[in-house]
Amino acid sequence: MTARVVDTPHGPARAVLHCAAEGRAALLLGHGAGGGIEAPDLVAATRAAVEAGVHVALVEQPYRVAGRRAPAPAKQLDAAWLAVAEDLGAGLFDTLPLVFGGRSSGARVACRTASEGQAVAVLCLAFPLHPVGKPEKSRLPELDAVDVATLVVQGERDPFGVPGGAPHREVVLQEGDHGLKADVEGLQRSVGEWLSRVLRPLEV
Predict the structure, then answer these.
(1) CATH number of the domain within which 122 lies
(2) Burial class (CB within 10 angstroms; exposed 0-12, middle 13-18, buried 19+) of 130
């Protein structure tokens, strides 16, 4: 495990790297709004990816690197994320397909930037479909805008809502809530199987 500091338009971001023995692709994972890259679901997804032969970069947004807990505005998050993706895609992960992903707020960033960042797939852990208690303020358009293979792993009792499936989108429901802590082994298995499946056509 190594870390790389990347300059972005909104301050330094940090990418903590977990490399597979022979990388077939690279997965960039973002954290939630108030949490860090040590969240159990991110750890499980990282383990699954490395076992599937996929390099992982756990991306810490500039506001977290600077020691702030309050998240930056969406446009700043997206710009910083794309700067990290460009840096890694032109360097360490050159020639490799990039998969974007994250938990909660990080999943939203991955969805919003997938097209511009040329991601081949998107992994959403605990996508916050709407603010708690406000289903009328749906963020489904962010998910629907993604036109590549997408996996959403969601807790059955997530107070932020549960999205449905779609032509490009698979939804795996697990026991538990927004934290996705109840079945990390199941999450790891689902992520590993999905990554192997969506990356296989790219290797022909």
Answers:
(1) 3.40.50.1820
(2) middle
